[in-house]
Design a protein that fits this description.
5 copies of one chain form a homopentamer.
Chain A: H1 2-5, H2 11-36, H3 39-58, H4 61-82, H5 87-96, H6 104-126, H7 128-133, H8 137-142, H9 148-155, H10 162-179, H11 186-211, H12 216-235, H13 245-252, H14 255-275, H15 287-302, H16 308-317
Helix pairs in contact in A: 3-12, 4-12, 4-14, 5-6, 5-11, 5-15, 6-10, 6-11, 6-15, 10-11, 12-14
């Protein structure tokens, strides 16, 4: 029961505007039929209404939407669990650097910054809200994610290659650490490479998700179908001269028409949502907040580098 | 045959209340029609009943429910096999600590406690029954999962970050163990990191499952559809003046209407169950009992640290 | 064509009993209508038959079964490929133990026995046929899988924890081997832990498959639907007074009714099979034979421990 | 357009025989009706034809086939990508053996032969065409895959255990190599074990695919349904006395009936294909050619063992 | 709303040609009926039109297309995320070669070239546009991917084996590096083998995707069904003598027929696209551009080999 009445994030909130418009148009048509048209026009109107009824019942919209929406939902679920995360890459790097190195703090900090930078450059390509936050590389520099000499290097690349350039920097840093022997163990060199490469693969899959998803033309076709159903259902009604309760209900409370149309409209909405989940919509993935969480996480993992005191304290106090 | 008659966990038990209400309302309407209404009202009643019949047959509910429920069930199955477990993390840590270390018991115990704490903090975020058991951090402290100085550190974080703070402690402890050379082998340092990170990923996926699941508005839309079908099916009947057996059955034993409605109602119930499986319902996952099992498991794996005697006994006796 | 005529494991064999009963009842009803009922009763009968016809055509059983059966089949396929195997755990352990150790044979044998024991204790929980073979721990002891002092330790645990206790023994044995330096390489210690943990995860998933599968109430609902369809289809027929070939066929050769009902019945059967595949049914997974194969496998892998002669022979002879 | 006209591997080629038979029978029935039957018989014929029409429209075959075929296709796709390959096992072994060993060539050759033997013994169990090529162990010996003293050892086992015996030999060979120190690195011992075990798992999954697939009775049920639809559609037609173009078309060009039937027939064919893909059919997986490719591959990887000259040449020439 | 009006990559662009043809034919038929045919012919025309109407409504095309398209889309998505990439193989090799080796640059360059060559040889087998760019081995040599003495070796193999030959070269190169001790660590030898083998598996899966996909005959069958629906829908109309608005609309604005046909046509198009995604179509995967990106990537990773200066600069400047 509570499910039916909740307003926040609800069906009602999603459709109330469209619902009002739909009702106004429907009732206007009904009033025109009752009070404006003469008998001949009524005849023609009834014919067209009958044709629209045929139309609405002949389109197998529910099957179309069922296959469309369940396909895009499955894809969306797989995206949600495979989005690139920065925690593992950063934490493992921090854990694998020897303590008390001369440039340790600097290296660790730079690596974390580059991982975040790679994440941001990737999602700028596909997520409009993040693109608005970071419209150019200068904004990333102002946010402290990029240094000016790095920016110069990035600016000569097309945007789609920038994450790869940053990856190259990170790999170079790994080589540097290995050459100078500041990894705890030789195997850390390979392990960090693997993690970076998984991170790259995740980023690449996310871009592919946005670029090679359900074809736009298919989404458009389904959208046209649902909207044309909506238009036809505004006219679709079985009219008779007799003034029975049913005819009154049909004319002024189009329960069935409204219900069907908004059910289809909602399914369509969720299918499209799943096909492009990086927008501004309430149900979309909030990339901006997510990025904030990744930054906070990076700060947390960086603090792992030099907190020997607190651990011993934790252990000894327990 | 046994399948049909079982009561425990059965369909009957799930719906008997709704069934009684439905039958009472249906029969009341039938009685009103037969004994209260005059002929004119009967005419209007019959019209509305016919309209409701159209309504119930026009809504393609079964397809809607089919796609909805099979999508959420698939998601539920994938959740069930990917829920975070504590055994692997704890047992591997215990097995990788050198025996006869000064603080060995203390370290091992603390690590196991923190893993359980991370699990509990994660599921508190998404599972209401567990949230009721541990309404605040103090209750976790009373349960022995948290120490008071740790609680102070956690209290300054928002609830959603607390599992990450505990993860940070665990990573710090791994560093401590590595620095003091109490791992059996250098590779144990990396292996335990990997296990912790998988544990974190599992916890994160579970939270995502609860947060970024089938959109609420879609569940609401399906729910409204099924309930509106139920309401319409209370009125939907083909009435005739003739007193044939069929008309009697239709009026007083609404087999078909009832059957359809409760079939849809059940499917809806399972779809919603799969969409939020952490509640109090009989078919939900019992997180409280699961947590108890994880605690028992932790005690078991802890006993691995110092039982050389019993093994040799086992081996020698065989 | 051969597909149509095969008897073994065939459709015919699955349904011939139900088919006979169905036909007898159907024909009896037809005979009663033709030779027992008077004209008034015939009228009533025809009304009820018409109602039943509506009923059978209105229930969207095929969609219900389609979604139900394909969901449970997918789940079943994933079970089949993820069932726990003992070969990998045992063979890897045997291969990783140094040869010519004092207690080598004993250790290797004990480990293999415990792996088999863990497997048996797991499947006893979910598979009734295996439970009948090993009704209690004593029967396992008699089968040579358990020693009496081990049985005493297991008996104080609830059945669901017994596989975990055995896992603890195995982990303790790994520690013992590591401490006494009888692994070929230090990495074998970790590798065997990982394999044991995968084995545990597989066992746990199998138990989850049996315990948290498609909810019983849903299976029951689908079953009720199919059986009620069957009952209605016994009555459902369009009767006319005219003695045309069609009416004769409909009355005495209910091809369509029978066909539909048994098609649905079969789908239901397979859906239920997939939902609980550990029973006695011909199409179920034969856990008893599988366990026998695992025992034979264990003997085979154990022989790997001490057969240096035969290999050199094999190599030199080739 | 080209899609419509291609003959090779086409729909037309698959069904032209059945199509001819169908047409001849259909037209014969039409001719009998027009020129043989008298008016009374025509009446009866029309009744039966009408009943068959009901029958063909009442069977929800398309849904049945949709669920059946998409389930078996998904299973087939997962099989195709998970079939056991020999390249990885052989190449890794060859790469991990020290060069210039006394028995090096012999060992490497024997290992490769045994991997191929394991593959062949596995697919002999499930693939009839390969079984015809290798009807017994002697034929494998003649093909050079088996030596006579090995054959004696295999012959005392049931066929289903033979791949396991060969696996045991391979594991013994790994132990031999490890004992005699001819692996490049100690880790190669474990890595080759893991690869062998993955190979075994792949083989086992393939056997499970063939043995525990979609139950035969279900395939039979679907087959019966489609064929019975075909029979009914031969009779199903709406006949009237009037000689309109429509009635002429219906009688002598059964476009709709034919179309529906062969569409269903084709879907059935593909569903059955996916359920047993190891046969002789044109669309089946050609196991014999695949085995040939594996043998060629093995020869290629074996050449990796001793070709130091050519590499240095390659490198220096570049 | 924007979704409805976009032209680029839109539905309209995909179908406008077919749409014009369809409309012209439909209107021509309508005009012939109105102005050419006499009353008798009109009668026959109406009969055929009615038969076509039956035909279009009886074919369950939407279900057929739903199952077909969702199956091929799922397959397509899995292809997109599993296509072989060269970055990981090349970058890991470059990172694992000791710096300041005599032939270091040459080896690293050769390895990268061979990886790209393997990729190109694989996709030449399945992708016609790439085949047109590289019609023979000479064109690959001209592109700098192949050296002339290598080409001679490849030319004696069938095209399907060429990627394996190149793999053999790469493995030989790994052995060479291992023998001469220019890997940073012994484990790099195995790690690079594993990566090469994953690369090979990816390439093999892609070939399998193209070769063992949805059977051609099935695609053909679905295509025939949709086109025959289109033909029938050109004739299908309910004609009456009365000149009502409905009959006018039906005759000259075939909204419903057109809509249904082009909806099916589009679904078919996407299903076929997903079944063979390596063509020239706008929605296909652009293999040529992808190959260009892989070449650019290879250059980038090669620069990792010898850029110690820039890193130190990066680190020191930060």
């Amino acid at each position: 029961m509570k499910t039916l009445l909740r307003w926040k994030g609800s069906t009602y909130r999603l459709i109330w505007k469209e619902f009002l418009i739909y009702m106004v148009v429907y009732l206007t048509i009904s009033l025109i039929y009752d009070f404006v048209l003469d008998d001949d026009s009524k005849k023609g109107f009834e014919d067209i209404a009958a044709y629209c009824s045929t139309y609405t019942s002949a389109l197998p919209i529910i099957l179309l939407l069922g296959f469309f929406t369940s396909t895009s939902m499955q894809r969306w679920f797989s995206l949600v669990t495979s989005m690139p995360g920065t925690s593992k890459v950063i934490a493992n790097f921090v854990m694998s650097i020897k303590e008390n190195q001369k440039e340790g703090h600097q290296i660790v900090h730079q690596y974390a910054r580059w991982v975040l930078l790679g994440w941001a450059l990737t999602f700028r390509l596909i997520c409009k809200p993040l693109k608005r936050v970071f419209p150019d590389l200068l904004s990333l520099e102002n946010a402290g994610l990029l240094q000016s000499h790095e920016r110069l290097q990035l600016e000569i690349c097309p945007a789609s290659n920038q994450p790869l350039v940053v990856l190259q920097w990170k790999l170079t840093l790994l080589k540097f650490c290995n050459r100078n022997g500041i990894f705890m163990d030789i195997s850390d060199y390979g392990r960090n490479q693997d993690l970076l490469m998984s991170f790259k693969k995740s980023c690449g899959d996310t871009i592919k998700f946005a670029a090679k998803n359900i074809p736009f033309a298919l989404i458009q076709a389904v959208t046209i179908t649902v909207y044309s159903f909506g238009l036809a259902s505004l006219m679709a009604r079985q009219l008779t001269d007799k003034h029975t309760p049913t005819s009154f209900i049909i004319k002024y409370f189009p329960v069935l028409n409204t219900f069907q149309y908004f059910l289809y409209y909602l399914w369509l909405k969720f299918g499209r949502l799943a096909a492009y989940p990086f927008g501004d919509d309430e149900n979309d993935i909030d990339i901006k907040r997510l990025f904030q969480a990744h930054i906070e996480g990076a700060v947390r993992w960086l603090s792992l580098y030099s907190s020997p005191g607190s651990t011993e304290q934790l252990v000894s106090m327990s």
